[in-house]
From TrEMBL:
Residues 13-333 form the D-isomer specific 2-hydroxyacid dehydrogenase catalytic domain. The keyword NAD applies. It comes from Gluconacetobacter dulcium. One of its GO terms (biological process) is L-serine biosynthetic process. One of its GO terms (molecular function) is (S)-2-hydroxyglutarate dehydrogenase activity. This is Hydroxyacid dehydrogenase. Keywords: NAD, Oxidoreductase. It comes from the Bacteria. Belongs to the D-isomer specific 2-hydroxyacid dehydrogenase family. PROSITE patterns: D_2_HYDROXYACID_DH_2, D_2_HYDROXYACID_DH_3. Residues 107-304 form the D-isomer specific 2-hydroxyacid dehydrogenase NAD-binding domain. SUPFAM superfamilies: Formate/glycerate dehydrogenase catalytic domain-like, NAD(P)-binding Rossmann-fold domains.
């Protein structure tokens, strides 16, 4: 069975999968799957990649032997599931691997914003120990708005309580695990937006959450609120976010995800003569660049998942998913 791991800089994953069965032939590719290289792996039975890999129909149609995709992440919005269903390709993900990891990163962004940590560190690096930033703020006593109360959202709520914050939560499907949680109540989205001091996003990428936070949602937010997004870039209209920040209505933002991240990583593709970028993509890329330059915004490069513990869980679950598929009893399927 031929298995190809894309975006595979970590040797542990290849070693774990190779150890499953001596009949497996495992190939690791450092970069993501692209149209330029996909034909080199046309004999693959199984492919694996992170959430940002391009598993569109245009790519998958060039893999005639493909029967299984093992996503090394929770999100699977980069996979054309309709194509997979129509062609008998099964897809699995890693349902839980980074609840603490991602929630901690969200609070890392929040804490850094609350004390202007990045500009302070930049000042001391250039020898300016007299630098005085704008006045910061405490978390204790603030209202934390959690949009999405799955594994990561619940862990973020737990941390908010640890900082002495009360919590307003929104989710289309409220978690029964939070039914008796102290200092927490579910509320409609508009109510959360109008009352929360900090709004933290923990929703998956779905058609319903695409553009979930836009112009009208920013207008409903409390003046001086802070937005944290460690969910998916397309959940937020970043042009509207930029306007809210520049007007002073929103105080700050911490972002680990952005729309069109592949274009940000490979900007030359924007000007490819055979596939020029759409105006909407150019707008997203420009907004991301401007946001990253603002002193009251921290942007990290989709790094919230990146801990040794999370990678171990990703590796273990991915290996288990591939083993189960090979044995005819697939698990963690999303198709």
């Amino acid at each position: 069975m031929k298995i190809v791991l894309f975006s595979a800089n970590e040797a542990e994953t290849a070693q774990a999968i190779t150890a499953l069965d001596p009949a497996f032939t495992v190939t690791s590719v450092a970069g993501p799957i692209t149209a330029a290289i996909v034909d080199s792996y046309a004999d693959a039975d199984i492919i694996s990649g992170f959430a940002g890999c391009d598993f569109s129909a245009a790519i998958l149609s060039r893999l005639p032997k493909l029967r299984f995709i093992a996503i090394r992440a929770t999100g699977f919005d980069s996979v054309d599931l309709d194509y997979c269903r129509a062609h008998g390709i099964q897809v699995s993900n890693v349902p839980v691997y980074g609840d603490s990891t991602v929630a901690e990163h969200a609070f890392g962004l929040l804490l850094a914003l609350s004390r202007w940590t990045v500009p302070c560190a930049e000042a001391t690096r250039r020898g300016d120990f007299a630098y005085t930033p704008a006045r910061g703020f405490e978390l204790r006593g603030k209202i934390f708005g959690a949009i999405g109360t799955g594994h990561i959202g619940r862990r973020a709520i737990e941390m908010a309580h640890g900082f002495g914050m009360s919590v307003i939560a929104y989710d289309e499907y409220p978690s029964p695990l939070l039914r008796d949680a102290p200092n927490l109540r579910y509320a409609p989205l508009d109510e959360l937006l109008s009352q929360a001091d900090i709004i933290s996003l923990h929703v998956p990428a779905t058609p319903e959450t695409d553009g979930m936070i836009g112009e009208s949602q920013f207008a409903r937010m409390k003046r001086g609120a802070v937005l944290i997004n460690t969910a998916r870039g397309q959940v937020v209209d970043n042009a509207a976010l930029l306007r809210a920040l520049e007007s002073g209505h929103l105080a700050a933002a911490g972002l680990d995800v952005l729309p069109d991240e592949s274009q940000l990583r490979h900007p030359a593709a924007l000007f490819a003569p055979d596939a020029p970028a759409a105006p909407a993509t150019m707008r997203d890329v420009l907004a991301a660049r401007v946001l990253a330059s603002l002193p009251n915004v921290i942007v990290t490069p989709h790094n919230a998942y990146n801990t040794a513990e999370a990678f171990r869980r990703i590796t273990e679950t991915t290996a288990a998913n591939i083993k189960a598929f090979a044995q005819g009893n697939p698990i963690n399927l999303v198709t």
